[in-house]
């Protein structure tokens, strides 16, 4: 399938996913307003429907707009990728409170850029999943928590004593070395085309270190970074 058609499909898919999510939110607010009206009568608070604040930053954050223009958007981006002039637009940075009291900075990309990231994430994972450890469960569509539970269950049955260790990387996404990351493409037998390398570099070039948290392609890069560790 031509790149333009692939982009059309995934941009529309991403827009429709967000539209569905927004309609679900709208319906929840509507039902809550009806319940309040029955219980409180005239004292019920007015129904308020909010839109994400970043929708006002650029119309390509708005899924209704993107769905209406997905073909022309895909055509334009496909040409830029083929000409090697594509650059993702600067993401909206959202601060998300962490359970431990810290703050996580999440990058929210415009819908077309998020769709491109997802498309190339899927392509890279499909070609390279056999290179990842079978004990690597995160950020994959062929492994999940149920596989981890099954593997732990087998270990517990086979061994009289099993040791468990829990640890976390501090600012893992934000501290990944680009030079180390790119070395993994060459050293460990991963398949990545010149076009895919261009897209990876496009999402990294605004940073000296780290990968953006909040976009699909970073999930593949995170697993790639931990390949030897896994």
Q: Can you put this structure into words, describing what you see?
A:
It is a single chain. With 230 residues, the protein is mainly α. The protein is 53% helix and 5% strand. It is built from seven helices and two strands; from the N terminus they run ααββααααα. The chain has a two-stranded antiparallel ribbon with strand order 1-2. Strand 1 and strand 2 form a beta hairpin. Helix 1 (3-40) runs antiparallel to helix 2 (63-83), helix 1 packs across helix 3 (111-128) and helix 3 (111-128) runs parallel beside helix 7 (216-225). The protein starts with a helix and ends in a 5-residue tail after the last helix. The mean pLDDT is 88.
Task: Describe the secondary-structure layout.
Layout: H1 3-40, H2 63-83, E1 92-97, E2 103-108, H3 111-128, H4 145-158, H5 178-187, H6 194-204, H7 216-225
Antiparallel strand pairs: 1-2
Helix pairs in contact: 1-2, 1-3, 3-7
- Please mark out the parts with pLDDT under 50 across 5 or more consecutive residues, or reply none: none
The end-to-end span amounts to 34 Å
Major sheet attributes: 2 strands, antiparallel
Helix content: 40-55%
Sheet with most strands: strand arrangement: 1-2
Average pLDDT, to the nearest integer?
Answer: 88
Proportion of residues in extended strands: 5-15%
Structural class: mainly alpha
Computed CA radius of gyration, to the nearest angstrom: 21 Å
Order of helices and strands: HHEEHHHHH
What is the count of DSSP helices, taking H or I runs of 4+ residues?
7
Shape summary: globular
Annotation, overall tally of beta strands:
2
């Amino acid at each position: 399938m031509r790149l333009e058609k692939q982009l059309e499909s995934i941009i529309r898919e991403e827009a429709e996913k967000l539209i569905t999510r927004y309609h679900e939110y709208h319906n929840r607010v509507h039902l809550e307003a009806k319940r309040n009206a029955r219980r409180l009568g005239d004292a019920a608070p007015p129904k308020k429907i909010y839109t994400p604040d970043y929708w006002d930053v650029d119309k390509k954050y708005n899924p209704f707009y993107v769905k209406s223009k997905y073909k022309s958007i895909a055509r334009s981006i496909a040409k830029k990728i083929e000409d090697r002039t594509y650059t993702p637009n600067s993401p909206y940075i959202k601060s998300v409170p962490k359970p431990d009291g810290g703050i996580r900075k999440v990058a929210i990309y415009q819908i077309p850029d998020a769709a491109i990231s997802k498309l190339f994430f899927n392509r890279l994972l499909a070609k390279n999943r056999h290179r990842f450890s079978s004990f690597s469960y995160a950020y994959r569509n062929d492994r999940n928590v149920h596989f981890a539970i099954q593997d732990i269950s087998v270990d517990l049955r086979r061994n009289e004593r099993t040791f468990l260790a829990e640890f976390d990387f501090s600012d893992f996404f934000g501290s990944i070395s680009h030079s180390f990351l790119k070395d993994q493409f060459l050293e460990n037998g991963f398949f990545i085309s010149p076009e895919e390398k261009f897209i990876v570099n496009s999402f990294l070039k605004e940073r000296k270190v780290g990968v953006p948290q909040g976009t699909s392609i970073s999930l593949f890069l995170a697993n790639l970074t931990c390949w030897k560790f896994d």
